[in-house]
Specification:
Helices cover 29% and strands 26% of the residues. It has helices spanning 41-48, 95-98, 107-112, 154-175, 190-202, 217-222, 234-242, 257-266, 289-295, 309-321, 340-345; strands at residues 3-6, 15-17, 20-22, 29-39, 57-58, 62-70, 82-85, 118-120, 123-127, 137-141, 145-147, 182-186, 206-210, 227-229, 247-252, 267-275, 298-301, 331-335, 354-358.
């Protein structure tokens, strides 16, 4: 089958191979024919080493498809089921799962670094984040395949599996934005746009979208922003809209020290700062001990939108059906797997929100 392979971390292109095969599914695993896969900045982060990834491996982690084979011990999925793929499946037995934080379950994440998911040219290949959705088929643990109704398009399900849950979940789950509150979102890509929509669903009255690319501002208004600006314009917007006090909730959706610091500075005393962007392990952000004490701001990390994927994917589908969550409008471009490198090259500094790889 065809798949896009990262041969080594640091490569700026993926190799399209046609001789890739999945490993056979184990007793508690399923094989899924991929029908749609989003192209996410995290895939670029895997290529450049920002996020941990093993090479050689198949990239892609935001996908959806149809179950074509189940392991002998799988009881809650059947051949023909439509599923979205999650890169944080829950074991439901570890301490994180039992304390109600299944998005922090590390059981399958650890396994993904020890169990290759594909083979090619007599060589084992890993799947990025335990997935590998830039392939025509993949094998994942059964909990990583979340059943969705058959009338939900695969591309919509794929978006929910990563970017939407990460962004909307940051607003609804991590921050728990309150109705009537003020919000700033720094970074207006796919996850940032999802954060805007989550803040709108939560009932925020003022939502400031911040991005250096002005062409993204019009889209941000469509997805829930009430005001837009560049980073240089943000202080003026805060002065105009909050009297200089700062917003109740500031979301950073970039993953850089400078933008994290900007989110901190944008929040009012006693406000909440949520770091959604995936940053490098060696990137450091500085805060003085005095400002941490005096301003009593909450600084929160948000991994996967603090989501329970089983509960929240269904909730996102309900929001989409009700017209509260615009997922169709997030799709800027559809392309075949053959054009994956062109899709990846448009991400840095581009205006696309989400590109979807479609499979026949």
């Amino acid at each position: 089958m065809k798949a896009a392979v990262l041969n080594q971390v640091g490569d700026d292109r993926l190799e399209l191979r046609t001789d890739v095969a999945t490993v056979p599914p184990g007793p508690q695993e399923v094989r899924v024919a991929v029908r749609a896969s989003g192209i996410c900045h995290s895939d670029l982060h895997a290529m450049d080493g920002t996020l941990p990834a093993l090479a050689p491996g198949v990239l892609g982690h935001e996908g959806a498809g149809e179950v074509v084979e189940i392991g002998s011990a799988v009881t809650d999925l059947a051949v023909g089921d439509h599923v979205l793929i999650t890169f944080v499946p829950a074991c439901l037995r570890c301490k994180n799962c039992l304390r109600g934080q299944p998005h922090l379950c590390a059981v399958y994440a650890i396994e993904s670094f020890t169990h290759p998911r594909f083979t090619s040219r007599d060589q084992p290949l890993f799947g990025f984040a335990g997935c590998g959705t830039f392939a025509e088929e993949l094998v994942v643990p059964a909990p990583a395949a979340i059943k969705v109704p058959e009338d939900v398009p695969f591309e919509i399900a794929a978006l929910i599996g990563c970017g939407v849950l990460t962004g909307a979940g940051a607003a609804l789950n991590t921050a728990r934005v309150e109705p009537g509150s003020t919000v700033a979102v720094i970074g207006c890509g796919g996850v940032g746009v999802s954060t805007l929509q989550g803040a709108r669903i939560a009932g925020a009255s003022t939502i400031i979208a911040v991005d250096p690319v002005r062409d993204k501002h019009e889209a941000a208004l469509k997805f829930g922003a009430t005001h837009t600006g560049t980073p240089e314009e943000l202080p003026g917007l805060l002065g105009e809209l909050t009297g200089g006090e700062g917003v109740d909730y500031a979301f950073e959706v970039v993953g850089l020290p400078a933008t994290i610091r900007s989110a901190w500075d944008s929040a009012r005393r006693g406000g909440t700062v949520v770091v959604v962007g995936a940053g490098r392990a060696d990137a450091q952000v500085s805060f003085s001990a005095q400002e941490l004490f005096l301003h009593e701001k909450r600084l929160l990390g948000s991994f996967y939108g603090s989501a329970d994927v089983r509960r929240d994917s269904a909730k996102m589908i309900d929001f989409w059906r009700a017209g509260l969550l615009d997922l169709d409008g997030m799709i800027s471009r559809r392309l075949p797997l053959d054009d994956i490198n062109d899709g990846l090259s448009t991400l840095p500094g581009g205006t696309v929100i989400r590109q979807i790889v479609t499979f026949d």
